[in-house]
Automatic annotation (TrEMBL):
One of its GO terms (molecular function) is transmembrane transporter activity. GO terms for cellular component: membrane protein complex. Residues 2-230 form the ABC transporter domain. It comes from Trichococcus palustris. This is Abc transporter. Keywords: Amino-acid transport, ATP-binding, Nucleotide-binding, Transport. SUPFAM superfamilies: P-loop containing nucleoside triphosphate hydrolases. InterPro entries: AAA+_ATPase, ABC_transporter-like_ATP-bd, ABC_transporter-like_CS, MacB-like_ATP-bd, P-loop_NTPase. Belongs to the ABC transporter superfamily.
Amino acid sequence: MITMTNVTKTYKSGDSETYALKEINLTIGEGEFVVILGPSGSGKSTLLNVISGLDTVTSGKITFRDEELTDLSEDEMTEFRRRHLGFIFQQYNLLQNLNVYENIQIGSDIGTNPLDIDELLQKVGLENARNKYPNQLSGGEQQRVSIVRSLAKNPDIIFCDEPTGSLDEQNSKKILQMLQDLNVAYKKTIIVITHNTGIAEMADKVIKMNSGQITEVIINKVKKNAQDIVWG
Ligand SMILES: Nc1ncnc2c1ncn2[C@@H]1O[C@H](COP(=O)(O)OP(=O)(O)OP(=O)(O)O)[C@@H](O)[C@H]1O
């Protein structure tokens, strides 16, 4: 689904040059649950940013299905993001003056083939929160709403950058369970960036990064259920 070929991204400041990504070669398959692990500064966010076109590559090629993303103009890339990608961040970014349904509607409105919001709310056990405002919900519930918001427009890939970074173990596992269920039920490709090695046990594929390079790719023959992973 996504192929990266010799992708390098450098940042220049004065005379020095930082390699945020160095000669990355990677494939991500349709419907895969992928976890990207690595210490701070290893290039995880840069990887997400270049795949989603939020940042350009210095050299190399990225393709999505048969389309070469690194050839697209900025406008075409915005359209690509709108049609194909969903994002979930550590911060929930919900609009405080809109209720749960309305927040999710913002997500579904930008999709060309959106999913039914009430059906999604039911699926994730949030049907009773439909008319509540974000400040009436716990952090875990707000993150579940933000996941539904990103899913509602029916993207092919959901990028999650430290989705459980603000939550305790119990709530984190609920969020991860939800991502795992969506991966199975809707066959969405899910890419999770994290520092948490436990989350890697849930993945089909684990990509370890260090200093802008992929140091190891692990294919899990057996995946753990979110509730059973070792936290930490
Ligand atoms: N806009 C930028 N300008 C200059 N250097 C940058 C920029 N963005 C990232 N870098 C550098 O590129 C390298 C990779 O950064 P990146 O943010 O991708 O790491 P990360 O693994 O996501 O880290 P974290 O887990 O802390 O978010 C780092 O050395 C960082 O300082």
